[in-house]
Specification:
Structural class: alpha/beta
Radius of gyration: 19 Å
Order of helices and strands: EHEHEHEHHHEHEHEEHEH
Shape: globular
Strand content: 5-15%
Number of helices: 10
Distance between the termini: 40 Å
Strand order of the largest sheet: 1-9-8-7-5-6
Largest sheet: 6 strands, parallel
Number of strands: 9
Bound molecules: NADP nicotinamide-adenine-dinucleotide phosphate
Helix content: 40-55%
Length: 289
């Protein structure tokens, strides 16, 4: 097999971020609008703290005003709920991100459902997910939307292809399957109860790994020429860098295009969050794309 196309999420995300910065500047110049994103963080989960920091930094670089609404470990569900309601009503805020997971015992679904659909830039509120089923969501969950955007930026066809999505979480596998279905792929969704997973992977033109298990998918499982999108991000003891759900070395020998980890799907997530946020601000002044 010839070398696969490397789906470079870092470079593509940089391009998107530059595009976002241009749109942010236009909103300021033509409408006097400063685009604003609020991140609600509850508890002290170190990964969540890091993600929120990364998102805030990315906002600042793109000229987006970012506000962190932070609660300690003693916060109640009602505290978070009220904060979301206040942000819904705040004209300086165009996008609201509730960083998950929320502390144990909180009804995440109830809180996410309270985010105004016009500000649901994370795309996982009830309205956004419902609209995605219908096929016309304004905002789609950032990682799946970023994965499809990456394919589009490399002009990889989706319609008519057999896409196999391994994983069915609400933030990743399920919305990705719907997005691909809406783009006329034939979609198979696999999960931990799937019997004979290799049988499905072997038949896939597009393999989407959304599992959370290091190097779980290997090259010999793939159909030659398959496109491999790896959302996995797994810490492995003794390895200096996080690894994906796919064994990159063996998959790259069989795939026609593949995302590296890191530098593939990961950077696309934040870029998509920024793109969704500027889109929310544009919609607030009547620009609908
Ligand atoms: P999750 O909620 O734990 O979901 C994992 C999915 O994998 C579940 O649907 C599970 O099936 C399925 N699964 C587990 N073992 C399996 C097996 N042996 N065979 C087939 N399917 C299996 O995880 P997630 O939040 O979707 O995240 C998945 C991965 O993506 C993680 O590595 C995460 O770090 C990464 N991620 C990356 C980004 C990013 O920005 N790059 C964003 C989100 C997530 P069941 O439903 O049957 O349990």
């Amino acid at each position: 097999m010839p070398d696969p196309i490397l789906l470079d999420g870092t470079a593509t995300a940089q391009t998107i971020r530059a595009e976002v910065a241009g749109r942010v500047a236009r909103l300021k110049a033509e409408f006097g609008v400063t685009v604003g994103l609020a991140a609600v963080l509850a508890g002290e989960n170190p990964a969540s703290v890091t993600y929120v920091k990364m998102k805030r930094r990315a906002c600042e670089k793109a000229g987006i005003y970012s506000r962190a609404v932070e609660f300690g470990a003693d916060a109640t569900e009602e505290d978070i709920f009220s904060a979301v309601q206040a942000l819904n009503a705040d004209p300086a805020i165009h996008g609201i991100l509730v960083q998950h997971p929320l502390p144990k015992g909180m009804d995440e679904y109830r809180i996410l459902a309270e985010v105004s659909p016009d500000k649901d830039v994370d795309g996982i509120g009830r309205g956004s997910l419902g609209d995605l089923v219908k096929g016309d969501a304004a905002f789609v969950a950032c990682t799946p939307a970023g994965m499809v955007e990456l394919m589009d930026r490399y002009n990889l066809p989706i319609a008519g292809k057999h896409a196999v999505v391994i994983g069915r979480s609400v933030i990743l596998g399920k919305p990705l399957a719907l997005l691909l279905l809406n783009r006329n792929a034939t979609v198979t969704v696999c999960h931990s109860r799937t019997v004979d997973l290799p049988r499905y992977i072997r038949d896939a033109d597009i393999v989407c790994a959304c599992v959370g298990k290091a190097e779980f998918i290997t090259g010999e499982m793939l159909k030659p020429g398959a496109v491999v999108l790896d959302a996995g991000y797994n810490r492995v003891a003794g390895r200096t860098s996080d690894v994906g759900d796919c064994d990159y070395e063996s998959c790259a020998q069989v795939a026609s295009a593949i995302t590296p980890v890191p530098g593939g799907v990961g950077p696309m997530t934040i870029a998509t969050l920024l793109a969704n946020t500027v889109k929310a601000a544009e919609r607030s002044v009547g620009i609908v794309s």
